[in-house]
Amino acid sequence: MSTQTTKILVFSHRPEVRETIITAVGRRPAPDLPRVDYVEAGAIADVLYEVDNGTVDLLILDGEAQPTGGMGLSRQLKDEITNCPPIVVAVRRKDDRWLATWSQADAVLVHPLDPLAAAETVAEVLRGSALPVVKG
Question: How many Å is the Cα radius of gyration of the chain?
Fold first, then answer.
């Protein structure tokens, strides 16, 4: 059995939103992928630290985070970080998917999160096949 893991950063200022995302995606989003270790971030500085140090394989950002939302953060990271890890943005309304596209996110999740759709979306992004994916 392989000990390889994938490190996913989950960002939201609200711990319950981070927990919801982690629970929906699960510890192994697909059988062909390694187990997931999560890093929780409640502040932008934590996200920037992890990305700058190259310690995460994927980011899941809460589009409703305060004071800076995940969509703005996604756009900033994609514009400023060479070889930025893939980003999934979680939005509250299906109508906000276009904003997540503007943010250059690799995929979008819509609350309430469906565990099957969330795991499938994350798996697709981790496999590198992520043209903009929308599951809702």
Answer: 13
Query: What's the CA gap between 38 and 56, in Å, rounded?
Result: 9
Strands of 107-110's sheet in order across = 35-41, 5-11, 58-62, 87-91, 107-110, 133-135
Contact 59, 122 (CB under 8 A): no
Q: Which of 30, 31, 39 is nearest to 58 (CA)?
A: 39
Q: Please report which confidence band the pLDDT of residue 136 belongs to, taking 50, 70 and 90 as the band edges.
A: very low
Q: For residue 60, give both structure tokens.
A: 């899941």
Report pLDDT digits (tens) over 90-113: 998 877 777 777 899 999 999 999
Q: pLDDT per residue over 15-36, tens digit each? A: 999 999 999 999 999 999 999 9
Supply the pLDDT for residue 130.
Answer: 40
3.100.10.10, 3.90.950.10, 3.40.50.2300, 1.20.1560.10: which CATH number matches 6-127? Answer: 3.40.50.2300
